[in-house]
Design a protein that fits this description.
The complex is a heterodimer. Chain A is an alpha/beta fold. Chain A contains 14 helices and 16 strands. Classes of the chains: A alpha/beta, B alpha/beta. The structure holds iron/sulfur cluster. The site of iron/sulfur cluster (SF4) has 11 residues of chain B, from helix 7.
């Protein structure tokens, strides 16, 4: 499917990441947004509030982030594509509903424009401290997808991708921006609508009598229906069987939970998205995501100038983590360097996959600003051995 | 015992409300004497005698004993998270305005953890019906005090009795902007069905509080007998006072209960207000929102 031209502002724009995210959502077909004001994400919903009345969308500023994160799920079951937008403290409040979306297989997008924490922290300054929370923040076992843009252009492109992945896999997708990317203004090219690929929800088409809401037909992802179509669906956050009925037994749990995880795990290679720059044949590989991928570039270039073979692997899809790729690199390269605007989160994933074969050096940062490339350079030099 | 013993053919017609229930999920989880099932029966009767297109009726519940209602009604039904039935219903209704959305949940769910959403949905006059079953206590978790527990009543977390002032829910709903407010008890089955029909026909935020016995926890702990004893109490102590000033309908421990339809007024719903306002403000640029 191609994007609905009604909402697509084809052309070149000079806008920040927050605004680009809004335009990406519109191009993806999102027509329901619920949010609660929080810095530094508010500009996304401010633009939505201005744009939606003109294109047939509906924005509601809810009473809090808890309400926002469940209102979008009601809207999805009402037939819309929907997202909510927040930052650290609000993201913390949304955790229960990420679990609800995972359990009920409600496709939706959670945008988190990360700021430095914990707690109120540095409200107007960047961090990448919510990366583990995005993956594990709700209780119990489940799977999600998380993307990490590094520019306003990617805020546009990857928001569309976030919606497409949410719909394809029926999962909540975390769109992990940060204050820097959110407030950075750059040129953003919005292509014509007929060049934007949009994944439309897979609605059930078989006979009504045979419909079972969570029957996957041997696949991993069941088709959906929406309220009002006469299927009398039941949706619950309780452990449920194929009928969607609560069934509080180990046997049903054993059927359901592995499927919720496997639909992501077994499609990890298809979902994976990353950029490699001279990773092949590199001695030291710098692994980055989001804004850190840009601060690492001067450091990598400097080290290369000095004759080091440094590769740069930038993760665009951070979750599911590209385990296979890191394992492969670990058997070729001699070290990893992982700069993060946190005290170490994704570095543990790299370490897990490197499995002791090669050393992994974290370049931590408390957040509030970006790395000084010098610190990344020093880490590269330290690892050259 | 051989199974055949139970397969007795009779001429007795099945209960007419069965069509509105997920009979394949029976027996339900509610205790003997619990009032929740009685209200569901009334709800089913209301559907049976209404001319609503049932394909367009959706029920949303939160968590708790009453939260299980969504699982037993044969309609599109959503069993959401604790306290969040109203914001889920908000998204559902706004996404698909042709749906009749009924929130069916308990007092703890809707007015403690969900209290914030309740007052804002009243204020926005969202077009939905909220049926709140008030059993004065948290049932599912074992009889803890609720924002509705009458003063001096005992709960598992107020072993010496409750000293907190409870909510007067009709007053709360009216003052926050609900356009229809009624209270009945599980004894008033016909009134409940009628109220549900009226509320579902009403545009805007309609609210029905139904007092219902919880013999297992509330009555037992407070030595009030079984479900039937509680029904007798409702019968003997309820006074029907339509149009009563909601300020005056607060509930004390085992005292008089004022029931009836207290509020029935008109006010633009959220969507009507939005469409009217944007049309005036934005003119032809605005595409009226229809879902
Ligand atoms: S605990 Fe109370 S409210 Fe819950 S089902 Fe039993 S009687 Fe009803």
């Amino acid at each position: 499917m191609k994007a609905d031209p009604k909402g697509v502002l084809t052309g070149a724009h000079f806008i920040d990441g927050d605004h680009a995210c809004c335009e990406g959502a519109i191009a993806a077909g999102c027509r329901f947004v619920a949010g609660y004001p929080i810095t530094p994400s508010t500009e996304v919903v401010e633009r939505i509030a201005e744009r939606f009345p003109l294109i047939g969308g509906i924005f509601i500023q809810m009473e809090d982030e808890i309400a926002s994160s469940i209102a979008i799920q009601g809207a999805v079951w009402g037939g819309k594509k929907a997202m909510t937008v927040t930052s650290g403290p609000g993201f913390s409040l949304m955790m229960e509903h990420i679990g609800y979306a995972a359990m009920t297989e409600t496709p939706c997008v959670f945008v988190d424009v990360q700021r430095a924490g914990p707690s109120t922290g540095l409200p107007t300054q960047p961090a990448q401290g919510d990366m583990m929370q995005a993956r594990w923040g709700s209780h119990g076992d489940y799977s999600i997808i998380a993307l990490s843009p590094n520019s306003p252009q990617e805020c546009f492109d990857l928001t569309i991708k976030a919606f497409n992945l949410a719909e394809r896999y029926r999962v909540p997708v975390m769109f992990m921006m940060d204050e820097c990317v959110g407030h950075m203004t750059e040129r953003v090219i919005i292509p014509p609508a007929d060049q934007i690929n949009v994944f439309e929800r897979d609605f059930y088409k078989g006979p009504k009598e045979e419909f079972l809401p969570y029957h996957t037909n041997g696949k991993l992802i069941p088709p959906m229906v929406k309220a009002g179509d006469g299927y009398n669906i039941h949706v619950t956050g309780l452990t449920h069987d194929e009928r969607g009925y609560p069934n509080i037994t180990v046997a049903t749990q054993e059927k359901l939970i592995p499927r919720l995880i496997n639909k992501i795990k077994m499609n990890a290679d298809t979902i994976a998205d990353y950029r490699e720059d001279q990773v092949e044949g590199a001695d030291i590989v710098v692994v980055t995501y989001g804004i850190t991928s840009r601060t690492a570039i001067p450091a990598i270039e400097q080290a290369r100038k000095e004759g080091l073979k440094v590769g740069h692997l930038r993760l665009i899809v951070v979750w599911p983590f590209p385990e296979k790729l890191i394992r492969e690199i670990a058997s070729e390269a001699s070290a990893f360097v992982v700069p993060e605007l946190n005290q170490g989160q994704i570095v543990y994933e790299v370490e897990r996959c490197a499995a002791g074969k090669v050393p992994v050096e974290l370049v931590p940062h408390v957040g509030g600003t970006v790395h000084n490339p010098k610190d990344i350079y020093n880490a590269i030099m330290k690892m050259k051995g | 015992m051989p199974e055949e013993l139970y397969e007795i053919e009779t001429d007795v017609p099945s209960n007419t409300v069965e069509e509105f229930l997920r009979m394949d999920r029976m027996p339900h989880i509610w205790c003997p004497g619990c009032g929740i099932g009685t209200t569901v029966n009334c709800f089913a009767h209301a559907l049976e005698t209404s001319d609503l297109n049932l394909e367009k009726v959706a029920v949303v519940s939160g968590i708790g004993c009453t939260g299980r209602v969504a699982g037993y009604v044969n309609l599109d039904s959503f069993h959401t998270t604790h306290g969040r039935a109203i914001p889920f219903a908000t998204g559902l209704k706004l996404a698909n305005p042709e749906l009749k959305v009924v929130v069916y949940s308990g007092d703890g769910d809707l007015t403690a953890i969900g209290g914030n959403h309740f007052i804002h949905a009243c204020r926005r006059n969202l077009d939905m019906t909220v049926i709140l079953i008030n059993n004065f206590i948290y049932g599912m978790t074992g009889g803890q005090v609720a924002p509705t527990t009458p003063m001096t009543a005992t709960a598992s977390t107020t072993p010496y009795g409750n000293f907190e002032q409870p909510f007067n829910l009709p007053y709360l709903a009216e003052s926050c902007g609900a356009v229809y407010v009624a209270r009945w008890t599980a004894f008033h089955v016909r009134h409940i069905s009628k109220a549900i029909k009226e509320a579902m026909a009403k545009k805007g935020f309609s609210f029905i509080e139904i007092l219902a016995p919880c013999p297992t926890l509330y009555s037992r702990r407070n030595k009030l007998g079984d479900g039937l004893d509680q029904m007798v109490y409702y019968q003997e102590n309820s006074e029907i006072k339509h149009g009563a000033d909601t300020k005056t309908v607060g509930i004390d421990f085992q005292s008089k209960i004022i029931v009836g339809k207290f509020v029935d007024v008109e006010r633009p719903t959220y969507l009507d207000a939005m469409n009217d306002y944007y049309q005036k403000r934005l003119g032809d640029k605005y595409i009226p929102y229809k879902g």
